[in-house]
UniProtKB/TrEMBL annotation:
Keywords: Kinase, Membrane, Transferase, Transmembrane, Transmembrane helix. The chain crosses the membrane at residues 14-36, 42-65, 77-98. This is Histidine kinase. Residues 163-242 form the Signal transduction histidine kinase internal region domain. It comes from the Bacteria. InterPro entries: Bact_2-comp_sensor_kinase (IPR050640), HATPase_C_sf (IPR036890), Sig_transdc_His_kin_internal (IPR010559). One of its GO terms (molecular function) is kinase activity.
């Protein structure tokens, strides 16, 4: 039945467990009563009918709780006070019918006396049944609320990551594109071959940026290729004023890192360190492994603390801040950016965990094959 399929499994399991629990209670209570107080076998039939009614009423109580749950806590309390009263009247009346009515006690006074007698002890048992069922409902709703809250946080975190990636892509900003197109326009008249290379490098940069999405990680060697293309294009503009040096541990080339995590750091050095300096300077990218950690650093000998503008690697002012947040969200708070600045230059560094060697063995072989193919 489609109606039953639409009911979450947690409610089905709760219902079955409640019925099983009350079946055990009724069985034990009836056996004790049969042995100690009433040796007649009809008490087993009466207990079975009461148990059947209870199982049906548990369903009604769940629906009633779900109805009350939409209202304020005060209405819920009043509603459950009314509910437990109605439940006692229903179960008490059924008990009266099974025990007294069939024996000839058919008058209102007999019914009233039976209910008053139940209130002395057995009525508490009926009240407990209602209260326990309501308690189970609220416990399930509480944990469902926690689960929903965690799910919403997870979805918000995913959306936040996607937004960060979008911001990251926007860091290939219009100024960079405008300057690159100007450089291509100049090269077309002097060196068409070099102009073609710059166009190819620019297309590789945008392809890499567009392919960087979600939580996908890339190998360090792919990120370095992207940085190389970016630097080559900038060198067309700045010429000998911009020098770039890589000091990369070969064993780190297969390390998985977030895409475009180094670009804001390099752009920061180009834009605020080297570009404003008359004689230019050198940017040094360092990647080294220290035991179970990998160290990344982008350092330049540009203006450093003498720069007039805040160094942040993007026209929108989110470059380094965005990179810092991405690193912390993926690798933990210990992987945030460490920034140092003085009159001789600027340095940005961070650490990430190093994966187990066995997990990277295949990746290293892939990198070696890739390097061989490039050499050819």
């Amino acid at each position: 039945m489609k109606f039953l399929d639409d009911i979450p499994n947690v409610w089905k399991r709760a219902y079955i467990l409640l019925c099983l629990w009350y079946a055990i209670n009724y069985a034990v209570g009836t056996i004790l009563e049969w042995q100690l107080e009433n040796p007649n076998t009809y008490i087993f039939t009466n207990a079975f009918y009461l148990f059947e009614a209870l199982c049906l009423l548990i369903i009604a109580i769940f629906f009633y709780c779900n109805l009350l749950f939409k209202y304020s806590i005060y209405i819920q309390v009043i509603g459950h006070a009314f509910g437990v009263t109605v439940y006692f009247l229903i179960m008490g009346t059924l008990s009266y019918y099974l025990e007294d009515y069939v024996e000839g006690f058919i008058y209102f006074e007999n019914w009233k006396d039976h209910l008053i007698h139940l209130l002395k002890w057995e009525g508490l048992h009926f009240h407990d049944q209602y209260i326990i069922t309501v308690g189970v409902y609220y416990v399930i709703r509480y944990f469902q609320g926690l689960q929903k809250e965690e799910q919403e946080k997870s979805e918000l975190n995913i959306k936040n990551r996607e937004m960060q990636i979008s911001l990251l892509k926007s860091q290939i900003n219009p100024h960079f594109l405008f300057n690159t197109l100007n450089s291509i326009n100049t090269l077309i008249g002097s060196s068409k071959e070099q102009a073609r290379r710059v166009i190819t490098q620019l297309s590789d940069i945008f392809r890499y940026a567009l392919d960087s999405h979600g939580d996908n990680m890339v190998r360090l060697i792919q990120e370095l290729d992207f940085i190389d293309n970016y630097i080559r294009i900038q060198q067309v503009r700045f010429g000998d004023r911009l020098k770039f040096v890589k000091q990369v541990d070969f064993s780190c080339l297969s390390v998985q890192i977030p895409p475009m995590i180094l670009q804001p750091l390099v752009e920061n050095s180009v834009k605020y360190g080297i570009a404003p300096k008359d004689d230019g300077g050198t940017i040094v990218l360092t990647v080294k492994r220290f035991n179970n950690m990998i160290f990344f650093e982008v350092k330049d000998d540009g203006l450093g603390s003498n720069a007039k503008k805040v160094m942040d690697g993007s026209s929108s002012g989110v470059g380094l801040k965005n990179t810092d947040q991405r690193l912390k969200s993926i690798f933990g708070p210990g992987s945030g950016l460490r920034i140092r600045s003085n009159e001789w230059g600027y340095s940005v560094s961070f650490f990430i965990p190093y994966a187990e060697p066995g997990a990277e063995a295949n990746a290293v072989e892939t990198v070696q094959e890739e390097l061989k193919s490039k050499a050819v």
